[in-house]
Automatic annotation (TrEMBL):
Coiled-coil positions: none
Membrane topology: Multi-pass membrane protein
InterPro entries documented for this protein: MFS (IPR011701), MFS_trans_sf (IPR036259)
Subcellular location, principal: membrane
Protein name listed in UniProt: Solute carrier family 45, member 1/2/4
Membrane-spanning ranges: 78-101, 113-131, 137-157, 221-241, 276-301
Lineage, uppermost ranks: Eukaryota, Fungi, Dikarya, Basidiomycota, Agaricomycotina
One Pfam family named in its UniProt record: MFS_1
One annotated GO molecular function: sucrose:proton symporter activity
Domain of life: Eukaryota
Keywords: Membrane, Transmembrane, Transmembrane helix, Transport
Amino acid sequence: MTGGAFFAPAAENDEEYEMGPVGEAHAVQWIGTAGVKGPKWARLPLLTVGMLGIQCVWSIEMGYASPYLLELGLSKSFMSLVFMAGPLSGLIVQPLVGIFADRSRSPLGRRRPFMLAGCLICVSAMMLLGWSREVAAIFGGGQWLAIALAVWAIYCIDFSINAVMSTDRALVVDTLPPREQEEGSAWAGRMFGFGSVAGFFVGNLDLAPVLPFLGKTQLQILSFLTSAVLMVTHSFTSWAVSERVLLRDDRPQTKSSLKSNLKSIWENMFSLPPGIRTVCIVQFFASLGWFPILFFTTVWVSEIYKASVPSDGIDPATFDSRAVRSGARALLLQALVNIVTSIGLPFLVAESGVQPSENVVGYEPIEGNANQGIGLGIANGNGDGHGPQARVETPPNSALWKRTREDLENGTFFRRLLHSFQGMVNHAKKGEWGIPIKGLTLVRVWWISQFVFAAAMAGSW
């Protein structure tokens, strides 16, 4: 491999053993090393850039599939059944792809064959969605054949893109060492955010006059562009990533793996701890409210546009296109708010109430009196207060920690301000940039967000 890489802690010819249920050992043999080509600064973007292509596909489907189905003549009630494809595909496809990929012995690795196959299926389905009316006309079909082809295309898109998404996420885990996986997940989140903004921004533009050679309608042009982005981004990832290749797998084949996984999910639903169960219940009802946001925002905004903007002297097709683009513009604003919030909130959220119970020990040079300052650090060393010593931070909620906090709260405003500034400087020295708001914990942010969402939904009436 050229260009350097992140390497998994595996030898080039590696044999592992997994113990069976009755104590027998099953050999699993690998060849090669897992890594990412390119300069260090480009490795994580190359590994996760496929997420950008995936989110572009979701953005176009969310923004344009609903108006297109209504234009073909499908009712809104049936349209809701069509978009069951999203959660249904996530429930079925991701475990199934994981099972087959884990056993794959392809020379390309375990993930990339499924990733590239899913991309090809998704591209074909995107083309069929954009040109479903024309394909139906070729076969002499009418409106209902066009609707059937469009619905089939949406199901193919959702099922294939879920397969691609599962392999993209698995590549992050398979390729990066554990210490890099958190940063890899952060980059994946950034790519999802950028893809959402890019997809809705392009969907907001009037592309038909600019790119008439790509299609006659906005959806046709967007289908072509989105397909190109999906293939290009995953081509970069496929080129940059090297996987370990499975040569030998003596583990017994289980024909009921998918059934066992689904059964395990069902059983775990009723054995969750009370706190997690409460969170899941809240998320369940929040998802019921979020579902119409995903697929009906464009329809709702376009209907408001048609009711409030005069259409005198405007071609009906042009007016409808403007209305749909207004819905895409609303989703663009939503994507911008989402990416700004996801990037900015972590800098404002204070630590939660859960604190470590043991002392944190680190080694750092301490100059002068070891116990000077505000009393939040105690140095243990040779006793002279100079040179490298072991620094033990006072554990939170200890007597000294509580007394120090009381002194600060009862002190002057200038002292509290100085302490806050000193805390910001200490965080900056550690590379932890942030201005946490006192009392704004992650739990409270989640709680507030539910009320804001409910109020916004009520305001849509």
